[in-house]
Design a protein that fits this description.
The chain is of the alpha+beta class. It folds into 2 domains: about 5-65, no CATH class; about 75-145, SH3 type barrels, CATH 2.30.30. About 15% of the residues lie in helices and about 25% in strands. It has 3 helices and 11 strands; from the N terminus they run αββββαβββββββα. Strands 4-3-2-1-5 form a 5-stranded antiparallel beta sheet. A 3-stranded antiparallel beta sheet has the order 7-6-11. The model has no long low-confidence stretch (mean pLDDT about 85).
Length: about 150
């Protein structure tokens, strides 16, 4: 099983990715393929090492390649155990049974609901409002906010 709480795993999740959204002549990829950026002397995107395309080419062709969110097209088991909020979130209700999440708050996710959401206190939240956090960041956050 993958340890989703390490810095290496978080770095992998945050590595830029693009989805192929159109064809071009002699293209080695299919529409829908997700390519990951590899930081090398000349940065390139690929699915496998033998089929690469330069980062410059990807950036020049937004009609062929679409940047995707860090959480898109991930298996549940690859998603992180801890998430850091990118914004203040409070539901639009006066109900006392609500969750309030402050910007920078780090939460533990027990289970993801669908591809891009998770549940917390009966509320379904979008992963796009969060970034992955490590176990160390989570534990540090807990100590600082006792």
């Amino acid at each position: 099983m993958i340890d989703t709480t390490t810095q290496d795993h978080i770095d992998m999740l945050l590595c830029p990715r693009v989805r192929v959204i159109a064809n071009y002549p002699f293209m080695e990829y299919n529409i829908g393929d997700v390519l990951t950026l590899h930081r090398a002397t000349i940065p390139y995107y690929s699915i496998v090492e033998t089929k690469t395309i330069s980062e410059a080419w990807v950036l020049l062709c937004p009609n062929i390649f679409n940047s995707i969110n860090w959480a898109d097209d991930r298996n549940f088991e690859d998603l992180p155990k801890y998430l850091k909020s990118n914004m203040y979130w409070k539901p639009l209700t006066d109900n006392t049974n609500h969750v309030e999440i402050k910007k920078g708050e780090i939460i533990e996710v027990d289970e993801y609901s669908t591809e891009n959401t998770f549940d917390i206190d009966r509320w379904r939240l979008a992963i796009s409002s969060f970034t992955p956090a490590t176990r160390i960041e989570y534990e540090t956050y807990l100590k600082q906010n006792k």
